[in-house]
Amino acid sequence: MANAAEKFLLNYQEHFLWSVLTTTNNTRPSPRVGQLRHSSDLGFFYTTKTGTSKIAQIEKNPLATISLYPKKGFDTIVAHVSLRLSAERRDLDAAWSDELLQYGYTGKNDERLRVILITVHQVTFGKDSYEGTPIDPKIEGKISKGESQSIATGPFKTKEIDELLKKTFTPKKLADLITFQGSYHDSRVMEVHYKEGVGLFSSTHLGSKKVNEIQVNENVALLVSDQKAWDQIIVDAVAKICTCPEMKKKVWEDSLKAFGFKGADDEQLTLIIYTPRRTIHHTMVAPPEELVAEPIPSK
């Protein structure tokens, strides 16, 4: 029998095609759009191929987050889950659908095919919370400890990244902002802007949950998808909280009054400034294109 968290997710199956699965890449959130699926045999699951980055990340850390955006307001459905990889024949057979052929699989006997089985521990949506399966204490012991992010190496494409972000976020766009929430991630939809002299940024309230999370862990990711073109751009970034009056004057626009701000000098108005480390552009017609920026100097 489905628990409260699973029942809640099943109410939003029309959004499964564009779910965001976020795993952890050493010290950084690693999101991607994927089709969440559900069956009576497997429960919730994804399909994937051997050799993908998500498989390597799940093997090191099975804790993950699935987010769904119902396209109303800015609240996002956030599911805290644990993942298990399976190559068992019965799971592959149960997961197979001929529609997977469009993603490059040759059939249910494709040696690359893997199933990501999902255990849902908790789902939140706005102020509401739904409990799922209690987390297995043994999972903490499966998480690889003491890993650090590898140092970026060239060729660096900092200028190309800036041009891509300027093109993508001018005018502003809605994007998923993924932060860390303890061992899991948090996700919400934000308006993200690009402005000369400022770079990539969002506006928010000083005491918001996302601000607190960034102050604890500055590693974030942005994900913007084009559902018509079937592509997505992921921005791996360092986020900084900025309350500088001059910066707030640079970005102020009257549309911010709709979010309760009185003006550029409003003490609650806070900027999140994103410094990109790399971008990944996924399309349906070509392999992912990754651009790496010059390393951010340590302070």
Automatic annotation (TrEMBL):
<dbReference type="InterPro" id="IPR038725">
    <property type="entry name" value="YdaG_split_barrel_FMN-bd"/>
</dbReference>
<dbReference type="InterPro" id="IPR052917">
    <property type="entry name" value="Stress-Dev_Protein"/>
</dbReference>
<feature type="domain" description="General stress protein FMN-binding split barrel">
    <location>
        <begin position="174"/>
        <end position="276"/>
    </location>
</feature>
<dbReference type="Pfam" id="PF16242">
    <property type="entry name" value="Pyrid_ox_like"/>
</dbReference>
<dbReference type="InterPro" id="IPR012349">
    <property type="entry name" value="Split_barrel_FMN-bd"/>
</dbReference>
<protein>
    <recommendedName>
        <fullName>General stress protein FMN-binding split barrel domain-containing protein</fullName>
    </recommendedName>
</protein>
